[in-house]
Amino acid sequence: MQKFAEAVTMVQNKTLLAELQPGDLIEFPRGAYSHWGVYIGNEMVSHLAGEEDDGINAKMRPEYMFTISGVRFNKAKVCLQNFWDIVEDCLAKKNNGRDGHWTPLPREKIISNATSRLGEVGYSLIHSNCEHFAKWCRYGIAKSDQVDNVLTGVAVGVAGAITAGLVYAFAKYAGSSENDEEENKRKERQSY
């Protein structure tokens, strides 16, 4: 069964590769996250790839999440690599999904952006990851929907926890006020 799944994935990736146009964004789903690159042509992809574990299946370390005083970590660099070396066993897909919201740059500018930073080193999960790079190349806007979705989820979770805490505190305070009033009335009756 696994061999069949691998064969189907291979056929689908070959079909995708035949349909890609230079300047298209490629998403490589990796389970919990996706790796991103820009198709240059001739099976070549420009992407921000890590030097250790190649940034695609990287072991995420906390120090890669943020920059310190604007300095990015030397975890990854922009490189050109063959599609087949990046795709591994995942089912890649063309993802120009922001085209409806943002205007793609002319194809020549996308390719120029994707190749102008070759060899540039630096990485931040939140501010400068492979998706930021790919979208900057295509749209001129460095944005990561993956990061935004996670941060939104965290913000909603924190807001929910704060709200629950306030409701609990209010209920406890309101309940203790009612108990205090009852206790005071009981003491007044006893004193007569």
TrEMBL record:
Q: Which InterPro entries match?
A: H-rev107_PLA/AT (IPR051496), LRAT_dom (IPR007053), Papain-like_cys_pep_sf (IPR038765)
Query: Which intervals hold domain LRAT?
Result: 25-146
**GO function terms (MF aspect):** N-acyltransferase activity; phospholipase A1 activity; phospholipase A2 activity
Cross-referenced Pfam families, in alphabetical order? Answer: LRAT (PF04970)
Q: Which GO terms describe its biological process?
A: N-acylphosphatidylethanolamine metabolic process
Q: GO cellular component annotations, sorted alphabetically?
A: cytoplasm
Record's keyword annotation contains Transferase: yes
Query: Which keywords are on file for this protein?
Result: Hydrolase, Lipid metabolism, Transferase
Q: Which protein family is it in?
A: Belongs to the H-rev107 family.
**Protein's recorded name:** LRAT domain-containing protein
